[in-house]
Design goal:
Blueprint (H helix, E strand, L loop, with lengths): L2 H24 L30 E11 L4 H11 L13 E8 L14 E7 L5 E8 L9 H14 L2 E9 L23 H5 L15 E2 L4 E5 L2 E3 L3 H6 L5 E7 L6 H6 L4 E6 L4 E2 L8 H6 L6 H13 L10 E6 L4 H9 L1 H9 L1 H4 L11 H4 L3 E2 H7 L4 H14 E6 L2 E2 L3 E2 L7 E2 L7 H6 L4 H6 L7
């Protein structure tokens, strides 16, 4: 081989090496190693990604959508709206959005045909399109509103998406701190020392009427109909989360209680939730991703404000219905101490049926029998005639833990909201003997001793 030929061959090898290196870095990005197989028919064992980076991401946002119920269509609309926002790219050391979704067949009111929940990673491609990459297809008949399922899904997310920070949104029906099925068929005066035996005696109530907007009422899986459903109780929900959460957003009814925030204080820093129900349209998802990822910490106040404005600006008075607050769960001990000091005054108020009717409630008159559990925490102390020093201390304590709060003047035209401190609380009802057995199991009652059971 002469010198010219050798020089040409050397240059050719160098050029080829440069081309291969450049091609592998620019035209064969890492996301191409995934296969876009959203809603396919593979078995669950085949749906794990072919390759995991093993790198720790900055933030992971989880949406846990339990839509095997009459909100299926609305919850899927929420996901579509969310993914029109600032979805991050695939970069394995950056932010990520992971969505768990369980819907009815074709978003219809079919609660007998079993469907498969899906876990997928949503990210933006180089051309700006959104890729929904299925990670796991769970077996048909799986129940999203189940504590074991919740832990399984979140543990798998933790394994596949190790991160410095996690935040989660839960979307479905819910009934605050109340135990499973109570708000749908309360036993009221039927006493039982064990909740599981009491709830078997419940008779289903008609939950919705054609005249009123559909609302979202942690989780609801309809087993054939709304009269037979699975839900996750609050303590189980808190116990089954396998990692610390920087924040939790509840796009669900009636979750905005001090009992909820206090139960979550050891696993979650901040919570965004509603004291009343939430209309079926749910939260405002248009800028949610931007608010979550664009700052060092998720901007929950802007998320709450967007939700409030979505409904406060509606033309229809009926649709101008929203309450929301953001609470720092770590700063509730001072509030608990004030409530504990005024236990006797609160009990006297609770036992006076006339006085308790003057306390700001977060349930509508026609739902008093089954939703008469949620009262404004501050207004309870005011109407209980707590000492002025304690009312001032309570105001200061609430200012420390409540980051923001918003409320429309009315909810569904029927409920007037004249006092809104940002937290609801149960005002013990002597006629709810079964419930009063359950309530002391909550951490909030252990701190306040609001209800005690004579041994």
């Amino acid at each position: 081989m002469n010198a010219n030929m050798a020089q040409f061959y050397t240059r050719f090898l160098i050029a080829a090496a440069i081309f291969i290196t450049t091609w592998s870095c620019s035209t064969f990005p890492e996301e191409e190693l995934y296969i876009d197989r959203f809603n396919d028919n593979r078995t669950p064992s085949d749906t794990y990604p072919e390759r995991q980076s093993g790198k720790t991401r900055d933030k992971v946002f989880i949406m846990y959508s339990m839509g095997y119920n009459n909100l299926s269509y609305d919850l899927n609309e929420d996901i579509d709206e969310l993914l029109k926002g600032s979805v991050p790219s695939f970069n394995p050391s950056d932010n990520a959005i992971v969505i768990f979704n369980h819907s009815t067949l074709n978003n219809r009111s079919n609660y007998r045909t079993e469907t498969s929940p899906v876990l997928y990673h949503a990210y933006k491609m180089a051309d700006g399109s959104i890729k929904k990459d299925t990670l796991i297809v769970y077996p048909e008949g799986s129940i999203a509103a189940d504590k074991e399922m919740l832990r399984e899904v979140l543990t798998q997310i933790k394994t596949m998406f190790p991160a410095k920070s996690y935040g989660m949104l839960v979307s479905s029906h819910a009934t605050g701190w109340a135990p499973e099925m109570y708000c749908y068929s309360p036993p009221d005066k039927a006493y039982s020392s064990h909740w599981a035996s009491a709830k078997k005696e419940f008779q289903p109530l008609d939950k919705y009427t054609d005249e009123r907007p559909l609302t979202r009422s942690i989780g609801a899986h309809f087993n054939g109909s709304s009269a037979n459903m699975d839900e996750i109780e609050l303590q189980d929900f808190a116990d089954e989360i396998p990692f610390h959460l920087d924040f939790l957003i509840f796009d669900c009814c009636l979750m905005g209680g001090v009992e909820v925030a206090y139960e979550l204080r050891n696993i979650c820093d901040k919570v965004c939730f509603s004291q009343t129900e939430i209309l079926a349209g749910g939260m405002n998802y248009k800028k949610m991703i931007h608010h979550i990822f664009n700052n060092k910490e998720a901007d929950l106040a802007s998320i709450a404000n967007d939700y409030y404005n979505k409904y406060a600006n509606q033309a229809s008075l009926t649709d101008r219905s929203a309450t929301v607050s953001v609470v720092d769960c770590r700063k509730l001990d001072a509030v608990a101490e004030i409530v504990k000091r005024n236990k006797e005054a609160i009990t006297a108020l609770a036992n006076n049926s006339t006085d308790r009717r003057n306390v700001q409630t977060y349930f509508q008159n026609h739902l008093k029998r089954n939703h008469g559990l949620f009262y404004d925490l501050e207004d309870i102390l005011i109407k209980a005639k707590a000492p002025e020093s304690d009312l001032q201390a309570l105001s200061e304590a609430l200012n420390q833990c409540i980051i923001c709060k918003f409320a429309t003047p009315t909810f569904l035209t029927e409920l007037k909201i004249e006092h809104h401190c940002g937290l609801s609380m149960y005002l013990p009802d002597p006629d709810r003997r079964t419930l009063n057995v359950y309530y002391p199991t909550l951490d909030w009652n252990k701190a306040t001793r609001l209800i005690t059971i004579n041994e």
